[in-house]
Amino acid sequence: MKSVEELKAIREKALKEISIRENENKTRIVVGMATCGIAAGARPVMNAFVEELNKRNIKDVNVTMTGCVGICRLEPIAEVYEANGEKTTYVKLDAEKARRIVAEHIVNHKPVMEFTIGAAEK
Amino acid sequence: MKEISLHLLDIAQNSVAAQASRIVIKIEVTSWNNIRDLLPAEDKKSEDTYWLVCEVIDNGRGMDPDFAKQVTNPFATTRTTRDVGLGIPLLKLSAEMAGGGLVLESQPMKGTTVKAYFQVNNIDRIPLGDIASTFKILILGNPDINWIIEFSSFKDKFVLDTQEVKKELGEIPIINDDVLDWIERTVCEGIKVVFGGVLDEVR
Fold it and tell me: pLDDT tens digits, residue range B67-117?
């Protein structure tokens, strides 16, 4: 099967990179992926985070998902947990906003204040 | 929900919450004869249409019979934070709108199967949507679970089992970017092969 061969090639390539990937204290991006989040469009948001991080070759950030955060009217929601314990909650996201968060928050360490829950709840 | 794939993303997370170690997502286009025995008596109608059957099968902790019976009620939930749970009722609604319905089987400590069936050509049937993306995200969020995705139609069959992928990968984690991309591409191919020309939305 051709695709299994492809998988072997991926493995070879990944083995060479594995040392860079082993990284403790990773930043985590957690996307709310319960019924409310999914219905509001959380899946394209999570995809955008993953794609943008890949595109920029950022290896020390984990993207994962969680259940209902409890403020369904502000979905899609993502929380950024930094290695130093800082947490930023972003609300009413879309794919474009997710890409900006990667560019400004993850790369340049400046949270995008206008997308945060603090800004939305003013 | 606008796509079946979004429902599946949602329902599969019930299985994750039920501490399943193995979750199968099965999508099948079949003729009425093949599924009629599975369905309640009142659903045995429109004998000549093709049916799209979507299942999420897990080996999680299951539900006791009383709870399983009332689980399509939006006000039945195991959550302690609030009193509503909309995942299953919404899937039931989508299925019923497309002339189908939902069947749930559960056994405590053994697991749960949620099965939704849709008339393939019903005008209100929502499209399959981006199944590959759903599957990728489920793996990314829960890499330790053994995920299996299965497609079948009268045309072809496709299976992807993350345990097989892991065997091939050895020490490389399944959430490696290139691996996830490969999984997404492979699932996309599978959908085309099995459902191309079978479902209108797959070309």
Answer: 888 888 887 766 666 666 788 999 999 999 998 889 999 999 999 999 999
**Domain-located, residue B132:** yes
SS3 category, A32: strand
Task: Report if residue B149 sits inside a domain.
Answer: yes
**Nearest CA to CA, how far is B37 from chain A (Å)?**
31
What is the count of structural domains for chain B?
A: 1
Query: Is B65 exposed, middle or buried (CB count within 10 Å of its CB: 0-12, 13-18, 19+)?
Result: exposed
Do the domain assignments include residue A11? no
B13 and A14 within 8 Å at the Cβ level: the answer is: no
A114: containing domain: 23-120
- Side-chain-facing half-sphere of B5: CA atoms under 13 Å: 21
**What's the ipTM?**
0.84
State the CATH number of the domain containing residue A74: 3.40.30.10
Specify the amino acid at residue A115. Answer: F
Backbone angles phi, psi at B128, to 5 degrees: -55, -45
CATH number of the domain that residue B188 is part of: 3.30.565
Residue A14 sits at the chain B interface (C-beta within 8 Å): yes
Q: Which among B59, B63, B67, B66 is positioned nearest to B16, based on CA atoms?
A: B59
Task: Give the rounded distance of the alpha carbon of B52 from its chain centre.
Answer: 11
Q: Are B118 and B148 in contact (CB under 8 A)?
A: no
Say what the pTM is. 0.89
Of B1, B130, B172, the CB nearest to A14: B172
